[in-house]
Amino acid sequence: MGNQLTDRIFWKKYWESKKDLAVAIKPDYTFHQILKKLVKKNKLKTAIELGGFPGYYAIYLNKYLKLETTLFDYYVHTGILVDVLAANNLSEKSIGVIEGDLFKYKALKQYDLVLSCGLIEHFEDTKDIIKRHLAFLKPGGTLFITLPNFLGVNGWVQRKFDPENYSKHNTKSMQLDLLAQVCRELNLQDVELSHYGKFSVWLENKQTKSALAKILTKTIWLAGKIFTRIVPAETKLLSPYIVLTAKKPA
Fold first, then answer.
1. Helix and strand tally (H, E) in the chain?
2. pTM check: above 0.90
3. Could you report the per-residue pLDDT of 39-48, keeping only the tens digit for each?
4. Which are the contacts of 102, defined by CB distance < 8 A and separation ≥ 6?
5. How far apart are CA 147 and CA 215, in angstroms?
6. Please, are residues 241 and 187 in contact by the beta-carbon 8 Å criterion?
7. Is the dihedral of CA 118, 124, 125, 127 positive or negative?
8. Rounded to the nearest 5°, which phi and psi values hold at 204?
9. I want to staple 115 with a disulfide (CB 3.0 to 4.6 A). Which of 44, 101, 144, 146 is the partner?
């Protein structure tokens, strides 16, 4: 099997199956607290979002934190992107766009911040895909990577009710020990790794799933929300995300 667990056809079908993508990104968008701290602490001015179509984080950083941002992805649906930008009162020129293959593209510019949210888990070689982020990152720059956590309750839901989607994810990349080892091997500094977020479970394209799958997923979601309201915790079992931040040596 090659390094990639998905291809261009997969992503074309994936994005075209999604409805209502043209939404206004809010100030409290997911991970906003971490991103605000990183930008302020490190005085970040430029950023590139890898594998980020339809560019929600590039838009967030540009719209609210005033960074000069670029979106890089293997597949960019121009029509969807234009609609998303318009929903956020941004023009087509507000963010840069690069459509390319991360394994073939040679970075022509480096940025203060390189981020990806839901990218690295789609590749077999976790070290290799993280290393490719660094080609876009300035010396001393900040790396911000998030990925879903399928090693807890949410992973069980995915595996049970959406095995096709589950198979597109490399769950080994979700092991904190492995990620920490990769960071050491790449000589990254100021590494912080954690499970993140209050309990949540989800199904992709929920409308296509059986009634039983939707009912059970909703029941699990509700039970988990009640439990974590009583016992708030960010853990491997319950948290929906993993967050990695680090710096490239100057």
1. 9, 7
2. yes
3. 999 999 999 9
4. 50, 51, 72, 74, 129, 132
5. 26
6. no
7. positive
8. -70, 140
9. 144
